[in-house]
Amino acid sequence: MRQPGVRADHDCTDHLSRHPPRSVSPAVAEWVKAQNKVTDAYLDTLPGRDAFKARLTKLFDYERFGMPYRKGTRYFYSRNSGLQNQAVLYVRDGLNGEGRVLIDPNSWAADGATALGEWLPSEDGKLLAYSIQDGGSDWRTIRVLDVATGKVLDDKIEWAKFAMAASWAKDGSGFYYSRYPEPPADAKFQALNENHRIYFHKLGTPQSADRLVYETPSQPKQSHYSGLTDDGRWLVIYTSEGTDNRNLLHVIDLKDPAAKPKTIIGELTNDWSVIGNVGSTFYISTNKDAPRSRVVTIDVASADLTAREIVAQDAAVLGGASIVGGKLILSYLVDAKTEVRRHALDGKLLGKVTLPGIGTAAGFGGEPDENETFFAFTSFNYPTTIFRYDVATDKATVWAQPKVAFNPTDYVVDQKFYTSKDGTRVPMFVVRKKTTTGPAPTILWGYGGFNIAYTPAFSAARVAWMEQGGAFVLANIRGGGEYGKAWHDGGRLANKQNVFDDFIAAGEYLIAQGVTKKDGLAIQGGSNGGLLVGAVVNQRPDLFAAAMPAVGVMDMLRFDRFTAGRYWVDDYGYPSKEADWKRLRAYSPYHNIQSGKTYPAILATTADTDDRVVPGHTFKYTAALQAADIGPKPHLVRIETRAGHGAGKPTDKVIEETSDLYAFAAKWTGLEVKPVE
Fold first, then answer.
1. Which of 285, 527, 588, 659 is catalytic?
2. Secondary structure E strands in 452-590
3. By C-alpha distance, which of 305, 295, 299, 255 is closest to 280?
4. pTM above the 0.85 mark?
5. Lower CB count within 10 Å: N or C terminus of the chain?
6. What is the architecture of the domain spanning 406-669?
7. Domain spans of the chain?
8. Which CATH number fits domain 82-400: 3.40.50.720, 1.10.486.10, 1.20.140.10, 2.130.10.120?
9. Active site (annotated) includes residue 379
10. Active-site pick, 240, 379, 645, 659
């Protein structure tokens, strides 16, 4: 296959220098155009592409809802009728009222690439703060809407990033939010994100008049987020320096207009997440002295800030927690599956919440003195369903259940455990049709980082792969949060190679067990998972038939020089430190491509507005692949326009990209794709 001209520039000798980020040149723009031209021409030849697109379009065409959020007498929720590019925000007056459209982001841009981000109603449900995400960027613009009239107020907040992170004042006069300083105009998507601050915005005033609430100018790398307690008295301030679960904790007593932030947790060593409060007694989940987390209370008004344990850690990993209806609702992971428990406020176990099956449950937000809450349940063969749950009666009823064009009983989910290189027992989920027997073309998916647990979840896209006779496998490798802090620590910093060993061992296990065969195994992962795919392809190019790294961190010696990259040092280490640099250099996908070895077919994906993992990572990686002598299979890049790291991507773009990826995987794993009636 003819590839566009490439230039190899590894430049890994400057490992202790601090060169400024390199800007995008006209030559790079031309390179991008040439790469997409070659990739599009190749994808046009794949026989399964049209069949996948037709089937995915049908599978995505089902009504789906987000969880309702009640404030005052109103219920707010998102809904997508099926093929809408963006979900629409609705409001109901009362639980059984008729829904009306509040915000339809599909009207904002012709290409559907401007999305509604986060949204939050005021305490009385009369106003709504919401964020706008353009072209997939992590930047947010915050606006305010009058719920009764639908009128958008003049208030406009710029330079919030990653999330709106707003908290309404109890009286609805304004809201607290976090933002960065305005970046240079020519570096909006590349400049480092520093000097994060918390402000209060009073409605009806310009952003320039917003009151500064909290900052740490001597620590520009710290991030600050705030939340207001349900009683409106306490502003809780979280401060962190990276992406791991370590934070400082301060509170401001809003009852006293002159109050200053009071330090509750002053050491950046553990996770401290406020669940709720009863007066000045705060309920907090923490992993201090409990790597799988526990629940403690602290009296924040007292001089004695001793944490008192009320729910000890156990073998399961504590994740979500809330106080609803005077009860503690605690969500745990047991071998990467959800278990939800009910506790009294003194910590006594009252029982478990009955779930529809083995899978993932999330939600359980609500008011501390109201019994109503909602949760979502999903699994590989169970489309995401919303339940209304009554805490007092312990009863759950379906609030919204989708109807997808597939039969869930046709599919089987098996959880298996395999042994990694160092003897560690690692779980995986294997999903396929019951009629799929013998070695099948398989997509092995992984992430393995940042304490993020990947659990069973429904994907209409994966149905399109499996109904053709393919298998899907999720490997719960180290670096994630499936088994708590120890599992995370086992796959970061000096232990990062364990992540790659776990994933390689997963592939070997699938072949040895006859789930697939060597020429039938494709691998896939995004972001940190893109790094994973790039690294294991370099280490074991013989093991895989195809690889699909998405928005990956591919240059491990320069990742900290762009946008949010500096936050990732908690998982990766510091390229400026000699010992860390050596470890990073040893697995960096860009720097370890092995000329002379035969590589699998590779289709890397990125997007022009990805300001989290800048597309330059994938550009450099692809150029290096194409400049190397790594065999005859295609090594391509698909560069999406008006899209970012993934959030807010329009439905039509998701369908197009998935069709391309699955057709590519089918070609190189031997999956015969047939139209589905």
1. 527
2. 471-475, 521-526, 546-550
3. 299
4. yes
5. C
6. 3-Layer(aba) Sandwich (3.40)
7. 82-400, 406-669
8. 2.130.10.120
9. no
10. 645
